[in-house]
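agent> Task received from the user: take the single chain below, predict its 3D structure, and emit C-alpha cells. No templates, no multimer pairing.
agent> Plan: (1) validate residues, (2) run structure prediction, (3) serialize to C-alpha cells, (4) report one or two observations.
agent> Step 1 OK, no nonstandard residues flagged.
tool_call: predict_structure(input=
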Amino acid sequence: MKLLKYAAFVLLSLIYACETNPPTDPAGNIVTQKVVITSNIDSAKIFIDDIFTNLYTPDSINLAVGSYVISLEKDNYTASPQTITVTETAPLTVNIDMSIVTIQKVVLLEDFANTSCAPCVVSNQYIEELKGEFGDQLLSVKFPTNFPGPNDPFYLAASSNCDFRRSFYNVLFAPTVILDGTVKPVPTDKDDIKTNIEQQLTIAAPFEIHVAGDVVGSNYKTNIQLEIPDISGVDYSNSVLYAAIVETEIQYSAPNGESEFYDVMRAVLPSNNGESLGNISQSGIYTFNFEQAVDGAWDTSKLKVVAFVQNSSTKQIYQAGSNH
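)
tool_result: status=success, residues=324
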C-alpha cells in the first residue's frame, strides 16, 4: 500500500503517493529536487501520478526523491506519459511532446446540375451511391443551373444563390462536380469521383465543424461551432464560413426523366458572401448563429444545414459539417 509523501513545490504544495517514505536530511527535512516540465504545446495541464498539480506547461515543481509518472492533458491533443526518477544530485528537465488528435476530414461535393440535363441523371445516381459508401465523410449540396433548360424550378426558387456560386467557380457546363472547392472530377465517371474523394480524405482537417439547426416558428435557426485546436496552416484572414440550407429529398417529374432530387440548395446563410473569419487569431471555439425564413414550398421535415469553411482566394474548402 502506498504511503503519502509530501513534496515542496516552487509555487504550490502538493501530496503524492510513493512506495517508501521519502528520504530526509540529518535535520529530518524531506529531500526535494526541482523538476522542470516543458512541452511543444503551452498551457497543457500537468499531472503527476494522475493528480492534477494546478500547473500548466511550461512550469517547474519541487518533488521528493523518488519515481513519478508525468502526464499532460489539453483538449484536442494527446501525449504519452513519462516515468521519471528524481534524485538528490541535480535538477531534472522533462519534455513531453504533444500531437494534435486526428480530426475526421469531411469532403464537400458541390453538384451543378439541371432538370433538363440528360448526363445529370447518371451523375446524380453516382453521387447518391458515393454518399452511401463514404457516409459521414461526404456531404453534398446541389446548386441548380439555368442551362441547358432555363426553367429548372429549383434554380428559379433560389436563382441569386445559384448564380453567385456558379460564377464563383465559373461553371459553364451541367453537370459539373467540384470537390472541396478545387477538384473537378469527371461527373459521369464514378471511379474518378471516388478516387478524388479518397484523395481529399487524406488531407488533414485543421478543425471541426459542429452544426445544429431546426425550424422554430416560421424560421430555420442554425447554430454553428468551429472548434479550432491550432490556427497554424489556415489563412483565416481570407477564410469564409458558409451555411447552405438544403432539402435532402424532393419528388419532381423532370424533363430529363428524373423524379428524385437530393440535397437541393434552398438558401445560403448569412448571405452569398458568407461570414468572414478574419477575426480568428487564436485557437478556441467560435460560435455563429444564422436565421432564415422558411419558404412554404419547403418540406421542413427534410431540411438540414451543410456548413463549410472556404478560402476566398484559393477556393480551398478546409472542412465541412452538417446537423444530419
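agent> Step 4: summary for the user.
Residues 106 and 137 are 4 Å apart (CA to CA).
agent> Done.
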